[in-house]
Amino acid sequence: MSDVPPQQPASPGPGGPGPDFDSMTRDIAEVPAVEVITTVAVHLMSAAAVNLGLAEEGPEHKDLDEARKLITALAGLVTAGATEVGSYHASPLRDGLKSLQLAFREASVVPDEPGQGPGEKFTGPVLG
Questions:
Q1: Whether the Cβ atoms of residue 77 and residue 100 lie closer than 8 Å to each other
Q2: How many other β-carbons are positioned within 10 Å of the β-carbon of residue 110?
Q3: What pLDDT digit, counting tens, does each position of 64-109 carry?
Q4: What does the pLDDT look like over 25-35, one tens digit per residue?
Q5: Which residues fall within 8 angstroms of residue 76, CB to CB, at 6 or more apart?
Q6: For the chain, which terminal residue's Cβ has fewer other Cβ atoms within 10 angstroms, N or C?
Q7: How much is the pTM?
Q8: How far is CA 124 from the centre of its chain?
Q9: Rounded Cα gap, residues 100 and 116, in angstroms
């Protein structure tokens, strides 16, 4: 038998049983903005790569329309956030974005005109 008392469930919030949003709010408030921005960017990159067919399952999940949306959102985030996160964090995000933009161009049966590809309204034309 253990001397450790059983864990008490998290106390319900004011609305009854469920997540303790006050605690969750305090937790997210402690995360630096740079970390939130880079984490979101990495999630967008990963999702775009999967939709480009670059994941292990490859073509099974390929959806260029979804990839275009994700890359465009990533481009907006990286472009707008670059000055806020600094070059140390922004540089690898820009590199990843460019790689995805080039992979999209390669995956397209009919490539977009330069400057018309996903996210290029934010980054300018991306050429190999």
A1: no
A2: 4
A3: 999 999 999 999 999 999 999 999 999 999 999 999 999 999 999 9
A4: 768 889 999 99
A5: 119, 122
A6: N
A7: 0.79
A8: 20
A9: 14
